[in-house]
Amino acid sequence: MPELNPDKTYTAQDFWNSRPLLKRIKLVASKTRKSPHAILGWLMVWMLTRISYETTYVTEVGKASLNMLFLMSAATGGGKSAARKVAQDNFVFQDLGLSCPSPVQAGSGEAIPDSFYVRIKVKDEEGKEVSKDEWINPNHCRIFYNDEISFHKGKAQQNSSTLEATYLSMYSGDHLGRTLAGGKGKEVPAGQYRAITVFNAQPENDPFRSDASMASGMPSRLLNLNASNPNARADYETASSIPMPPPFQMPHFGRRGDSMPPQFRALAEMEAAHAEEDFLANEGLREHGHSHTLLTRAKTACVLAALEGRDYLVIEDWHLAGHLIDHSNAIDTHIKKTLNAAARSEAGKAGAILGIKLGASDESKELYAIERVAKNLTNHAGKCGYDLTKKHSAPENLEPFKVLSNKISSRDRDLIGPALESIINETTNKKDESNDR
User: Which of 100, 225, 271, 369 could form a disulfide with 49 if both were Cys (CB 3.0 to 4.6 A apart)?
Assistant: First the structure.
């Protein structure tokens, strides 16, 4: 077994200072009062359009598509669309004929395969004019951009909608579409296209954190990026004396005359991480809702390498990608808390929050919810090997806690901590009462 580099963690400052491009992104974001994560996200999107659709991420298990899903999260007016414009104005990609056509907003899963083709008129062997479908661009590429998430939610909630399922398939590079009777419909062969999807969403309006989406693994396929900058004021003041740099020419990435496109081969540290992930999955211990997080991190590492013009990975790519996944997970947690709070608030307005009738106080509603979650935890703890008399941070409870948490509905996960504390407090109180007697 080769000696492996330990996973390195970065502070935000360390991350943005780690590479010249990241420094420049941070400066441009500071000068324009925009989010550096959103700007980096758009640069990743545009770089992916220039990576050959045949280029994959290769591990000892096999090949994985580099197609990705991005979610830009911010409140209304928080800078989601503005960050894209700033990125476009300040970072220039060389156009070698592989640049992707303008982004499209898909109305249905069935319509997505159509987006890859254009119908042209040609003459057949007999000289007759016939229709023929051709790829829209040489890299078989499409960007799907959902600027208004409510449009996606409306379409996705239709009974016949296959939008989310199609996005899941695109992430994996699976076959898309089908040919219908009469030659209608389109098909996109597996592994023969590059697809990047971007969602702009407000935390309270996010459509991908439901139990159904969690079960499908959709959240773990998303790279969530904060499209607002909570430190904008301080960043702007710090950069006030530094002139805005001229537009930056991005490094070239693409075919270099090779007979086959370059492949991003996993480093030993990445192979070890994938192996551990497989072991946990087989043992039923993988953290709920994170089935594809590691692969999303690996894809992110590949794009970070491409942004430097490299067609191979170095360990820093993997570590920097880990920082972005930590950022993504923090956004995921924030979105879930926002949605859970909104759901309980709406239920309360209807007079049925967590089983409490109209007129109950907010405090009693919360206590009732904690009590209900505590009962569920107590019922499952023994089977999960969890010791309810000890904190969940106790070494012997770390792994059982992951299993136990998966037994609780996603809408109640933010109540697990308070519920466990209430169980410990109740046990302590009973002991004290017994001692007093």
Answer: 100
Token output for 178: 């089908």
SS3 104: strand
Contact 219, 289 (CB under 8 A): yes
More confident residue, 64 or 182: 64
Q: Sketch the domain layout of the chain as residue ranges.
A: 12-108+139-338, 351-436
CA distances from 327 to 11, 37, 420 (A): 11, 9, 27
Best mean pLDDT range from 173-187, 188-202, 388-402: 188-202
**pLDDT, tens only, 405-425:** 888 877 788 889 888 888 887
**pLDDT (tens digit, 9 = 90+) per residue, 308-341?**
999 999 999 999 999 999 999 999 999 988 888 7
| Whole-number average pLDDT of the chain | 84
Dihedral sign for Cα 267, 271, 277, 280, please: negative
**Distance between CA atoms of residues 137 and 160, nearest Å:** 30
Hey, which bits of 23-140 come out as E strands?
57-58, 63-64, 68-73, 91-92, 117-123, 129-135
DSSP 221-288: HEEEEE-S-TTHHHHHHHTTTSPPPPPEEPPP-S--S-SS---EEPPHHHHHHHHHHHHHHHTT-SPT
Q: Which two tokens stand for residue 157?
A: 């909630």
Q: Are 239 and 30 in contact (CB under 8 A)?
A: yes
Tell whether the torsion through CA atoms of 99, 101, 106 and 109 is positive or negative.
Answer: negative
Which residues does residue 129 pair with via DSSP β-bridges, in sequence order?
123
Q: Which two tokens stand for residue 394?
A: 């106790």
Q: In what helix (H) or strand (E) does residue 377 lie, and over which residues does it extend? A: helix 362-384
Q: pTM of this prediction?
A: 0.77
Fold of 12-108+139-338: Rossmann fold (3.40.50)
Mean pLDDT of 266-272: 96
Chain Cα centroid distance, residue 27: 25
